[in-house]
Predict the structure.
Amino acid sequence: MSLIDILSVLAATIRLATPLILATLGGLFSERAGVIALGLEGMMLAASFAAASIATITGSPWLGLAAGMGVSMTISLIHGFASVTQRGDQVVSGMALNILVAGLCPTLGLAWFHLGGQTPALEHGQRFMPIVLPLADSLADVPLLGPVWNILIGGHNLIVYLAILLLPLSAWLLYRTAFGLRVRAVGENPHAVDAAGLSVAGLRYGALAVSGMLVGLAGADLSIAEGAGFGRDMTAGRGYVALAALIFGKWRPAPAFAACLLFAFCDALQVRLQGVALPIMGVVPVQMVEALPYLLTVFLLAGFVGSARAPHAIGVPFVKTR
Amino acid sequence: MSRDLPWPIDYVLIPALNLALAFLAGAVVLGLIGVSPGAALGTLLDGAFGSLDGAGYTLYYATTFIFTGLAVAIPYQAGLFNIGGEGQAMLGGLGVTIVCQAMGGYPLWLVLPLAIGAAMIGGAAWAALPAVLQVKRGSHIVITTIMFNFLASALMTYLLIDMLRAPGDPSPETAAFPASTALPYAHEWAAHLGLAMEESPLNLSFVVALILAFLVWLFIRRSLWGYEIRATGHNPSAAAYAAIPVDRVTVLAVCLGGACAGLVGINEVMGVLHRLVLGFTAGAGIVGIAVALMGRNHPFGIVLSAILFGALYQGGAELAFDYPQVTRDIIVVMDGLVILFCGALENMLRVPVTRAWARWRTVPA
Amino acid sequence: MATDRPAPAIAFDRITKRFGAVVANRGVSFEIGAGTIHGIIGENGAGKSTLMSILYGFYQADTGEIRLDGRPARIANTADAIRLGIGMVHQHFVLVETFTVLENLALGREGGLMLQPGIARARAAARAIEAAYGLAVDLDARVEDLPVGSRQRVEILKALYRGAEILILDEPTGVLTPDEAQQLFQILRRLKSEGKTVLLITHKLKEIMAVTDRVTVMRAGAVVGDVATADTDETDLAERMVGRKLAALPDRVPVMPTTPILSARALRIVDAGGVERVKSVDLDLRPGEIVGIAGVSGNGQSELMAALAGLAPLAGGTLTWDGAPVPALGRARALRRLGLGHIPEDRHKSGMVGPFEAWETSVLGYHRDAGHAHGAWLRPGFIRALTARRMVEYDVRPRDARLRTSAFSGGNQQKLICAREMARGPKVLLVGQPTRGVDVGAIEQIHARLRALKHEGTAILLVSVELDEILALADRILVMVDGRFTGELDRSEASERALGLLMAGVHGAAA
């Protein structure tokens, strides 16, 4: 492999990691507040559909982005209504929303765009295109620095940079602000939050709203930034992978981020490996290579050894008692 | 305060109200895509029950959904949510395929039990690892079973393209099984009895499904293992206190669920397709979740809700025929809505209904 | 108001609260003077907790009024209560265990977007409160690393930091050693001297006598007494509380020394987190003897019980039954088969399966026994008939074997469990907190059953945090502190004081 090859695998890792990072951060706020984030997949899928649809109709990626975030947030709040207000089973609620969205997007897509459930391919102006960094041309011929600057650091779309920015921002929000303290408290012991005169439901809804916005960004990245339009089931299990990354990262931003990078790297490698003859193994069947991220998910979940435990109150509906 | 309700309210009225809400939401979706909900309902009912072959299709679909519904319900009794019915059904189909391809020429009374066994083993095997990982490593079974659905799909693609495909056939499917392994169709039996019944894919598997539902009920309510599964699901620490081997019981429940899912292969592969076809499960595992929740994880409830979903599937096919903007995806929407209203939002109506019942009861007659 | 007497800090005026058909508070009226320590005493279910919940904004009274400093107060929720200067220390602490003490203090009072200034403010305020009331706590420690006594001080600190003028303490000494309880009382007296009003909710008469100025007695939702503590005594309070004269304890039959049936030698137990919970314990249970284990909960008693029942793996040591070692594999099942009964200390967590019908719960753990099962199948008809008989014999109400277990009251659930574990005439019976959350009538029945079993020759191990219960039942008392037995007393030489010293970890102080 040449330097360019290595750099392009790493660059692909960053691009593929972006929706995972955003979804994982979204899951982080939900689960740290004590609500199981099993609806990530559906939220992300709905966001990518909404973003692509609105970007197609209005021609503006910004409106598409807003629509994606708005729809994702709405689904997150429906999950909140079932989990927090109705004290329903959070796993069931999450799955219900995932399945509902999986059927609803192609249904609406077909009725609106008549393309078999897809949205029309977006033109350049309708989506977030790779950004060419300043100095790109002048550095192009510089050895090492040039390719690194242009392939690895530059050339990504806006949402990629946003994700990198939102990681420390989320950590800051969770660990350094009053809101973060309350969110972490409500996921550990909602009774303490209640006894402090704060609203358990209010905080959980707040955390779910933040979660929805972050996951909305992830969905938009798939359809109006990294991709150019919505395709059926385009999240392909990324919501579940993000949840696995969150668990493997022990519900903390930095380790979860690392887990996302690992998944994305595996995914990037997977694309590279297809049809390539490896030493000893020869050409690995394409299905096996494609299954790699899923295998990795199971593997990491199985390898998860918890010295850190899940938020204590996760999945338990809050019932006020003395 | 006792929350006990008389069973007709608990098991009939509340599920019916929840279902009505799900259909109401479904009507809104139909409206959104420009289909009149009233007209659609007519088409749907007519397609599902309007004719005998429509009813045959309904029961054929219901057969598959009974299997996948039980696949969710048994692990649910042990407190676990099995989303892996889809993948487990695929492996069950593989088991059926192996038996049918090897047993050409043998009588059906010998082939069918073997095929059932192979289907159950295939499904149970695919459920075993997620179950063991949940028990031993705490790996979230919802995520692992979903991953195992993806993995099963990849495995089947590989097998059907690279290994099992009939020579010269461009599509990913095996060659047809020997004719002697095909299960009898309902219309064939009807013809034997001198009844005219139009052709439908309804076959002997429906009887297998009904027997299975009864056996599952017997097992859960009356057997020692069923007792231990329920104790584990309701209160694991009480089960441990009662010297019940909680881990083993949990794995058992999930594997039995997988075995039920595997039987989808009997209905689809052995009963209708007579060959293994890529994607023969067609989302049945997901429908099973809705079926189980609507049937309140009770085997008899599951039979009823499976028939309802069978009707929805069959009627939905008719709907897709009449309206170009409707596809099978509308059924997936209904799955989601039913799971939402009958599962996650189950308490929404329960509280006001309970209150209304309490008030009604205290009013002197 | 221009009277000479200042308005009382709190006045309850004809408070009534119903839950469905149950009247939890029935026209409750009394006053609590500012700057006093006021006790409220009553049995489980007497309505004192409901009353405090109304005061703290958890519930709303159906009718009646609460006046604070003479002014009618509307307390719609906890936030209102806090704003009105009411603080509460719950029986089960409501702290975020993964947070530090300061983070717990700051929660809800961060005072802005950023956390750090709020923490700094909490630190300064906490230091001032510590100095004023003698509440020493490590402010930067995580709550999960603090011992129980310190956690309680954190709760008090938290209430004061939130501006409490009135402090409610709900059964505060249940988790404390007698020594820690004395320290708590010191703090309460200090609070009083600084002008705070303290409400002490308890069912322990000694505490009322030791620390309060005035006491209100509640029974069945109503006030049945309101007197200055100086004008009453324990017997008077007890009789008001129970509503009748207390029966004298039956005479104790001396125990004949016999060979032990269940013996533990050098037993060690390490929990999932790697902490050694039981450190080399020897124990013999003999037929016809009740051995009591006293100690503050969390000192290894639960783990010891679990290990003796075969439910927890041993990190070391041996367990023998009738002199023969009990194999590690399938130990729980083997012990039950040999004749071990076990009334678990937390019945909701372990003793029963809420959604199970009564007949199903009544064979939990014995469901595989001959008679209950036939081959791989349960025998519902037989078990239901058996359950119906036991319900009569053990006075379980309602007598409906098909009712869900969770629909029975706490006392009846406990009787159902006792029936299950006692009716088969166990050779050894392990009993944990048998009367926790059980009403008075059921307590007497359960105690009588335990004595009867003992006379029939059952070896009984009784673990209880209620010293009174241990003193009333046990022939031999072991005190457990930090995973070890710190002392052994014969009933004849045991007293609350002697046990208290041992529980505080003072070795060899018996007498």
In short: The longest helix of chain C spans residues 116-133. Chain C has a mean pLDDT of 88.
